[in-house]
Design goal:
about 400 residues; alpha/beta; 7-stranded mixed β-sheet; 4-stranded antiparallel β-sheet; 14 helices; transaminase activity; pyridoxal phosphate binding; pyridoxal phosphate
């Protein structure tokens, strides 16, 4: 028996690069999944690498293609939305773009609600026509108008479960039946509701998207988007996403998972507080209109009560007399911040932020005026919130 070969002696530069990596000790499993920040992974041999690259075995191999943290988040969100699969992306717009481009080509036609988020509106109104995809904007709450917009080339109907910022409530089950009857898919942006309040796939939606930066993560610390759908539709979207480079970071995926664990608890608090605030604002003389599905004068009140038996989340909007003065009166207590769904209450100004991409005439036609404020109601004590709003309105 020959003597074993002596271990090679390495220079310090080599040792610094490799030390500790050659024999990681076995440890008890971490209660919380670690962050896998590596941008690339090593394989035992060519066969092992080939299985990963061909998709025969789930595996991380390059950051743009996914990370273990992203895969964990995808499994969690598919479970919560009740779909076969999910695809996480670097932003909500990346998720919507990948979802739609996965099933559309030049010559196809999309029907969308005119009330969608401003950047979604810009994507559909400006970018898709450049790709040869035609788009019709309709009132998605008017089923006759939606049906009249169908063409032989219509492939997708896209709506929001609760629209931003006016909280209209499209009839998702009816839209699904209408779309499927014409051979089209129904796409639903479920960001405002979250799966804690509404699961579009249970009502016939084929493509369900979110900005995970909002209620899913819940703390204004993580950024990303997700598509939840069948395995086939997710695979189509994943191909587009990888080519466009819309990858979510491992850290953002990890942070979203931490927020996701309290989604149910947070949404109950958001929803109860928002209903209480809406009930008070609607009776104040300085408030000209309140938009919230839980108010009996909401145009889709009965449909909303049927589809959302557990509440509507934390969003509402209000047309307030002298909105700039109201915002200043809340300074130091309720921040003006152009996003939503934090655990603290925030205000946003749709006219100049989320719906700024829309032409001024279209904003006014939809009811988005300079005095309209969008309120993202947090989970604070309701008595404290009511006091803040009442004092600001009375100043």
């Amino acid at each position: 028996m020959s003597d074993p070969k002596p271990a090679p002696t390495y220079d310090l530069t080599t040792l610094a690069a490799r030390a500790g990596e050659e024999a990681r000790p076995n440890r008890a499993p971490a209660l919380v999944e670690p962050i896998y920040q590596s941008t690339v992974y090593a394989f035992a041999d060519l066969d092992d690498l080939d299985r990963a690259m061909s998709g025969q075995e789930p595996s991380a191999f390059y950051y743009r293609n996914g990370t273990p943290n992203a895969a964990t988040l995808e499994r969690a969100l598919a479970t919560l939305e009740g779909t076969e699969a999910a695809l996480v992306a670097g932003s909500g717009m990346a998720a919507i773009s990948a979802a739609l481009l996965g099933v559309l080509k030049a010559g196809d036609h999309v029907i969308t609600d005119a009330r969608v988020y401003g950047v979604t509106y810009a994507l559909l109104a400006e970018e898709f026509p450049r790709l040869g995809i035609e788009v019709s904007f309709v009132d998605a709450c008017d089923l006759n108008e939606v049906e009249a917009a169908f063409r032989d080339t219509t492939r997708v109907v896209h709506v929001e479960s609760l629209t931003n910022p006016l909280l209209t409530v499209p009839d998702v089950p009816a839209l699904a039946r209408l779309a499927h009857g014409r051979g089209a898919l129904l796409s639903v942006d479920n960001t405002f509701a979250s799966p804690a309040m509404f699961r579009p796939a249970e009502h016939g939606a084929d493509l369900v998207t979110h900005s995970v930066s909002k209620y899913l993560s819940g703390h204004s610390t993580a950024f990303g988007g997700v598509l939840c759908a069948s395995a086939e539709l997710v695979a189509l979207a994943r191909t587009r996403l990888l080519r466009l480079g819309g990858t979510i970071s491992a850290f953002d995926a990890w942070m979203t998972m931490q927020g996701l664990k309290t989604l149910g608890l947070r949404m109950r608090a958001h929803s109860g507080n928002a209903q209480a605030i809406a009930d008070v604002l609607v009776n104040h003389p300085r408030v000209k209109a309140v938009y919230h599905p839980g108010l009996s004068d909401h145009p889709q009140f009965h449909l909303a009560m049927d589809l959302y038996p557990n509440g509507f989340g934390g969003m509402l909007s209000a047309d307030i007399e002298d909105a700039p003065r109201f915002v200043k009166a809340l300074a130091g207590r309720i921040p003006l911040a152009p996003s939503l769904a934090d655990v603290v209450t925030t205000l946003s100004w749709p006219w100049g932020t989320s719906h700024r991409p829309l032409p001024e005439g279209e904003r006014r036609r939809l009811g988005i005026t300079p005095n309209l404020l969008r309120l993202s109601i947090g989970i604070e004590d309701i008595g404290d919130l009511l006091g803040d709003f009442e004092r600001a309105l009375d100043e």
